[in-house]
Amino acid sequence: MNKKALIIFLIVLVILAALIWFVFFRQKPVVVQPTPEQPITEQPARLPVTKSQWEVMTIEERGRLGLPISEWPAEGVVTEIPVVPEKITPEIDEVASGGKTWINTISDDQVQNATLAGDGQSNIYYDKTGGHFYKIDNLGNKELLTDQVFYNVENINWAPTKDRAILEYPDGFKVMYDFDQKKQYTLPKNWESFSWDSSGSHFAFESTSQYPENNWLATSRADGTEAVPIEHIGDKADKVTVSWSPNNQVVAFSATGDPRGSWEQEILLIGQNGENFKSLVIDGRGFESEWSPVGDKIVYSVYSADSNYQPKLYLVNAQGDAIGSGKIDLNLATWANKCAFNNNGNTLYCAVPKSLPEGSGLIPDLAENTRDDFYKIDAVTGQVSFLAEGAMGGYNVGNIYLSSDDSMLYFTDKDTSHLRSIKLK
Predict the structure, then answer these.
(1) Which of 36, 191, 358, 398 is the most exposed, having the fewest neighbouring CB atoms within 10 Å of its CB?
(2) Domain of 385: which CATH number?
(3) Are 269 and 253 in contact (CB under 8 A)?
(4) What is the DSSP string of 296-312?
């Protein structure tokens, strides 16, 4: 074997030895396997009630609390209990005290010309749907005032004693009905614009015709007899507002005074015997008024360019030598027929629209979709305070009046014609 071959043999031998060592004798690295994580077993959520409590619940109650509906979970079963957010109930007052206040429904009938009954607490009204007159208390218990049915009455004018009323129909037919005697008296069709005296024994009215010379302001007994003309109104009948004062001094207002500029008007007060009363100077047009219970004040509303043709409310003295004095601008945009004095006349309550479109004093129908808040006014000082905001969106108030003890404020909801109330005490 030559030298070269020997070298090759030795190289091959070394390589074979290295392979044998690598395959059979080299220590293999230890591979450390990761320890598998143990599953975390969650403890079952603890139900907020016991099984016995759950069993007596209704399905609705279980669902509201987020509990199982039909089967109580077995031991060890995971039950997810959703977090029920706490309900925040807005504060609503039972008695009006300057915030949101509950308004109660007295009657769901289609009420027309509702007013306080003679007992000072209940209400009386005409049901437009059935044609009956009812008396109803604050709990909704009602009784017929009479068995007689009166269909399609257009307007009812109650006497202050609430035992009589003048009923007017669309065809011009008019009757005075006595609820105590259950008797009716037919009145002439050309008599209109009725207003009762405080005793309910007489009423004032306008007697009109197609001839101005036959138009008169007059009074009559309740049964339509003994009509007495008071003042000739000629072609000015549309300027006369028949309104018999509680003290029986005034029977009508007349917007026929001397001109006093673009918006000021002089309103004359007409008595039964040609008295020369002082006049009222008002700050606008569209005069509407309501008497205080003793006839010493009136609240009135007028509109003008200065008020964006919205109604504006004023309080003024209206008796004897004080007529026209003490006028107070109440700074409220509403109509006088949305106001009512309390029993002794020292407080005035008014429903005031939350907002009014421009021109609503001139065209009241523009305000038919408004909602009213309630205000309380000191009739001596004129101080105005916020009384209540009706809960659940509020209402558009029609006629409004108080119980004799000033504990309840009643009104008709214009949208539904339902009779509603607010507690004042």
Answers:
(1) 36
(2) 2.130.10.10
(3) yes
(4) SEEEEEEE-GGGTT--E
Q: Count of domains in the chain? A: 1
For residue 398, is it within any domain? yes
Q: 181, 165 in Cβ contact below 8 A?
A: no
Whether residue 16 lies inside any domain: the answer is no
Q: How many CA atoms lie within 13 A of 373 on its CB side?
A: 17
Cβ atoms 252, 318 nearer than 8 A: no
Express each pLDDT in 45-101 by its tens digit: 556 677 777 777 776 677 777 777 767 776 655 455 555 555 555 689 999 999 999
- Reading the block at residue 156, the tokens are 């009812």
Q: Calculate Rg over the CA atoms of the chain.
A: 42
pLDDT in tens, 182-222: 999 999 999 999 999 999 999 999 999 999 999 999 999 99
Residue range of the domain that includes 164: 100-423
Structure tokens at 109: 């009938």
User: Which residue(s) pair with 217 in the sheet?
Assistant: 206, 231
Query: Which regions in the chain score pLDDT beneath 50?
Result: 29-44, 78
**Number of CB atoms found within 10 A of residue 35's CB:** 6
* Torsion-angle region of 94 (φ positive above 0: left; ψ -120 to 50: alpha; else: beta): alpha
Please report the pLDDT score of residue 24 as a whole number.
57
Query: Does residue 297 lie in a domain region?
Result: yes
Q: Which residues pair with 232 in a beta bridge?
A: 216
Beta strands in 179-294 (DSSP E): 183-187, 191-196, 202-207, 216-221, 228-232, 240-242, 252-254, 264-270, 280-283, 285-291
Q: Which residues neighbour 218 within 8 Å (Cβ) at sequence distance 6 or greater?
A: 204, 205, 206, 207, 227, 228, 229, 230
Q: Please give the structure tokens belonging to residue 295.
A: 């006839």
- Do 369 and 396 touch, CB atoms closer than 8 A? yes
By the 8 A CB rule, do 123 and 419 touch? yes
Separation of alpha carbons 400 and 409, rounded Å = 7
For residue 162, which of 128, 135, 138 has the smallest C-alpha distance? Answer: 135
The Cβ of residue 296 has, within 10 Å, a number of other Cβ atoms equal to: 18
Distance of CA 401 to the CA centre of its chain: 13
